[in-house]
Amino acid sequence: MYKFFFKRVCDLVVSIIALPFWLIVLLIIGPIIYFQDRGSIFYNAPRLGKDGRIFKMYKFRSMKINAPDIRNEDGSTFNSEDDPRLTHIGKLMRKASIDELPQLLNVLIGDMSIIGPRPDLPEDLKLYNDFQKKRLEVKPGITGYSQAYFRNSATQEEKFNNDSFYAENITLLFDLKIVLKTIVTVLRKENVYKNKGEYGNKTTIKQ
């Protein structure tokens, strides 16, 4: 009952309550993002949703305009504290996960949940094995099991498996534990970046 009904109710209640606070952050952060390079405030990215449906995910833009997509050897997104693609405000937003706040709009629309697997790129679908496809049985989340407990320290393969484990074991208690762990992880700034050389020394740039 929780997975198929009350979870959505909780999403709506939390996102509606949080919306005024998000608007305050937007009024403060938005002009700073714009005036740093006169670019868009938001970054709208196509992502895989429930049942493999592609949707537009909203984020505060943390990178410079036309920044290249750099990946680690395992295909995961490259993250580094000295990443030259990040704007000054982008570095601060990444550390505090403020760039993810616009996804409250995705929750209200119904594309995402507060808790769920972090949404992957559409092309990642071909990388899933049968077990990993289970993550598509639930809505992606602003935070989730892998994000809260491992953040960027897990390999892409581990992340896929963690997401599918969550999809098979959703309960209210599990979601509450994820929320508490997310708060601790963000406050402690744990695993924000992958260490240099982790998952291989080379990176590839996807044009």
From TrEMBL:
It holds the Pfam family Bac_transf. InterPro entries: Bact_transf (IPR003362). Residues 7-187 form the Bacterial sugar transferase domain. The keyword Transmembrane helix applies. It comes from the Bacteria. One of its GO terms (molecular function) is phosphotransferase activity, for other substituted phosphate groups. The chain crosses the membrane at residues 12-35. Keywords: Membrane, Transferase, Transmembrane, Transmembrane helix. Belongs to the bacterial sugar transferase family. This is Undecaprenyl phosphate N,N'-diacetylbacillosamine 1-phosphate transferase.
